[in-house]
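Re: the 271-residue chain
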Amino acid sequence: MSVSIPYYHIDSFADELFEGNPAGVCFVPAFPAKEVMQKIAAENRHSETAFVVARPDGDFDLRWFTPIAEDTLCGHATLASAYALSLRGHDTWPVRFHTLSGLLTVDYDREHHDRARFEMDFPARPPVSCEVPAGLLSALGIETAEILRDPRDFLVVVNHAGLVRDLKPDIAALAKIDMGVGGGAIVTAAGENDVDYVCRFFAPSEGIDEDPATGSIHCSLVPYWSGRTGKQTFRVRQLSPRGAQMWCTLLDPRVKIAGEAKLYLHGTINI
């Protein structure tokens, strides 16, 4: 029997099309079998595809899949899911998503209605000192850095934004490093001009050579940079080839991550 799934392709953390991070959003009455969702995510080839199920209480269940595995926390596909709900006429904000990382909420930023800006409420995950995996810095092409660890990712702090911008990591070597379940490498530095900090994110072992725009990493970056600067609010640039911008706030033990989104495609998946 054929099943039709409403599908949205949305560029998250983007103020123009073809920037930020593409995410797929599928609306289903109940979650399909895990292997089916994984196949859809692999077919989409986005770094993340979200599956959204409406609950009787007005909330939503939400799951995320990379091309090769189910994820436990994803920012840009959560933002995309909220934006897709707004396109479908959802008008109760903040929207509440039940996920593998607990309850996540997304509010519509009413001061920027014409720009489709949404603000996510995520858990803060302050990074801590850690044992450095052999080969991590050389695979990234970095000589020296401060290295910390959050529950999922390694945080690599370098001296200036130019180093982050010019990184050319050895993706094959990086993919061989054991970073734990779902883990990757965040590279960050203080920003320039009106940008507070910059970052890039690499997770090749999860099927994501470089993520164009990543919301979840700010669960660690915001408390880290708050501790270094004493600030609570940040304007951020992710220096991937596509480019992305975020606005972040620390409200310990939570982090607010805001960004804009653009609709690229709305269609139907037939399986």
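The mean pLDDT is 95.
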